[in-house]
């Protein structure tokens, strides 16, 4: 199975908050990442969190990390139409220090 | 600042034809380089990575190959394309080493390949 798992789809109303969830397997991962992919484009680094942190906030983005449950979430406040994209969660594989990505969550923002 | 470019952006190739996708990184030296593939509706699959000139590691056996002829150039090739090779190919780089700066991966714009 996948090392990193995410739900595949999320639909949210414009102005509401979006919460994208992710579970990972490597409890020794030092950094966890969120990337955004707009249609037809490459992946853009959104934010990351170090494993000794529980929360990180960056403007409309809030990352929560639960190391005990190996659960990571990304909250987008006041979701806008420009937030429609695929969001990827990623962890660092400790055996070779390469990033392992989830399948991506497609977020659709409806008016 | 560092930049990464890959080309062509879009490619339509017949089955059995060769493939060459190119990627270059500017503004840094000795980066780790990566080729990922994103099939329609699926996540990212790491195909190849390189930690230096002439050093290529393959993650998944298939009819693709990669080469790194120069420090900041990474090429993805195939001698004979299959229909299943269709997808979105992403080149990426990072600095390597410990810490956030070393591990964070930065992606190119991607190349759409359709094999017909």
Break the fold down into its secondary structure elements and pairings.
The complex is a heterodimer of chains A (111) and B (116).
Chain A: E1 5-6, E2 9-13, E3 18-23, E4 31-37, E5 43-50, E6 55-58, E7 61-66, E8 71-76, E9 85-92, E10 99-101, E11 105-110
Parallel strand pairs in A: 2-11
Antiparallel strand pairs in A: 1-3, 3-8, 4-5, 4-9, 6-7, 7-8, 9-10, 9-11
Chain B: E1 3-7, E2 10-13, E3 19-26, E4 32-38, E5 44-52, E6 55-58, E7 64-70, E8 73-78, E9 87-94, H1 99-103, E10 106-107, E11 111-115
Parallel strand pairs in B: 2-11
Antiparallel strand pairs in B: 1-3, 3-8, 4-5, 4-9, 5-6, 7-8, 9-10, 9-11
Structural class estimated from helices and strands of chain A: mainly beta
Helix proportion of chain A? under 10%
Question: Mean of the pLDDT scores of chain B?
Answer: 91
- Can you tell me the overall shape of chain B? globular
- Total strands of chain A: the figure is 11
Largest sheet of chain A: 6 strands, mixed
**Structure classification of chain B:** mainly beta
Rounded to the nearest angstrom, the radius of gyration of chain B is 14 Å
What's the total helix number of chain B? 1
- Put simply, the count of helices of chain A is 0
Helix fraction bin of chain B: under 10%
Low-confidence stretches of chain B: none
Write the element-wise H/E pattern of chain A from the N-terminal end onward.
EEEEEEEEEEE
| Relative strand content of chain A | over 45%
Relative strand content of chain B: over 45%
> pLDDT under 50 segments of chain A (min length 5)?
none
Mean pLDDT of chain A: 90
Specify the overall morphology of chain A.
Answer: globular
């Amino acid at each position: 199975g996948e090392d990193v798992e995410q739900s595949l789809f999320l639909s949210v109303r414009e102005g509401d908050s979006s919460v994208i969830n992710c579970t990972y397997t490597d409890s020794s991962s030092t950094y966890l990442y969120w990337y955004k992919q707009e249609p037809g484009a490459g992946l853009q680094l959104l934010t990351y969190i170090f494993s000794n942190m529980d929360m990180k906030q960056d403007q409309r983005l809030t990352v929560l990390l639960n190391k005990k449950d190996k659960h990571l979430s990304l909250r987008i406040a006041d979701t806008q139409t420009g937030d429609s994209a695929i969001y990827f969660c990623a962890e660092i594989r400790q055996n070779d220090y390469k990033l392992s990505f989830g399948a991506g969550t497609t977020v659709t923002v409806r008016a | 600042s560092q930049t990464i470019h890959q080309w062509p952006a879009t490619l339509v190739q017949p089955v059995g034809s060769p493939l060459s996708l190119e990627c270059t990184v500017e503004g840094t030296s000795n980066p780790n380089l990566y080729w990922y593939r994103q099939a329609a509706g699926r996540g990212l699959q790491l195909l190849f990575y390189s930690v230096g000139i002439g050093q290529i590691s393959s993650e998944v056996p298939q009819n693709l190959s990669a080469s790194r002829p120069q420090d900041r150039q990474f090429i993805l090739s195939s001698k004979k394309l299959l229909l299943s090779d269709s997808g979105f190919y992403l080149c990426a780089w990072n600095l390597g080493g410990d810490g956030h700066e070393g591990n964070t991966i930065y992606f190119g714009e991607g190349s759409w390949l359709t094999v017909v």
